[in-house]
Amino acid sequence: MELERRGVPSVTIVCQEFAALAEVAAQAAGQPSLPMVKIPYIVPMLEGEVPPIADRAFEEIISELTAPVPESPVQAQA
């Protein structure tokens, strides 16, 4: 969140199980549109199951990093 606050494009990667908590944290930090990519909890997965998940996440990360930045309410008032 700090990188986004400083204007550095970033994407938060979060396990699906913790996505709601991450969204609440982003709201509380004043960043409701914080880019997030949600992935499954990969720790208990077999080695061969992880690469396809990483490939999909990579595509989402690139998409989020290259998407137009939504204007924040603070920017709109300036």
Plain-language structure description:
The protein is mainly alpha-helical and 78 residues long. It has one domain. It is 46% helix and 10% strand. The chain is built from 4 helices and 2 strands; from the N terminus they run H-E-H-E-H-H. The chain has helices at residues 2-5, 19-28, 50-66, 73-77, and strands at 12-15, 36-39. It has a two-stranded parallel ribbon with strand order 1-2. Helix 2 (19-28) links the parallel strand 1 (12-15) and strand 2. The mean pLDDT is 84.
Blueprint (SSEs and pairs):
Blueprint: H1 2-5, E1 12-15, H2 19-28, E2 36-39, H3 50-66, H4 73-77
Parallel strand pairs: 1-2
Features:
mainly alpha, single chain, two-stranded parallel sheet, 4 helices, 78 residues
Brief overview:
The chain is mainly α and 78 residues long. It is 46% helix and 10% strand.
Question: Mean pLDDT, nearest integer?
Answer: 84
- Computed Rg: 14 Å
Can you give the helix content as a percent range? 40-55%
The number of domains: 1
Proportion of residues in extended strands:
5-15%
Spatial separation of the terminal alpha carbons: 22 Å
Give the number of helices: 4
Question: Main sheet?
Answer: 2 strands, parallel
Shape annotation: globular
Q: Order of strands across the widest beta sheet?
A: 1-2
Contiguous uncertain segments of 5+ residues: none
Counted beta strands: 2
Oligomer state equals: single chain
Structural class: mainly alpha
Sequence of secondary-structure elements: HEHEHH
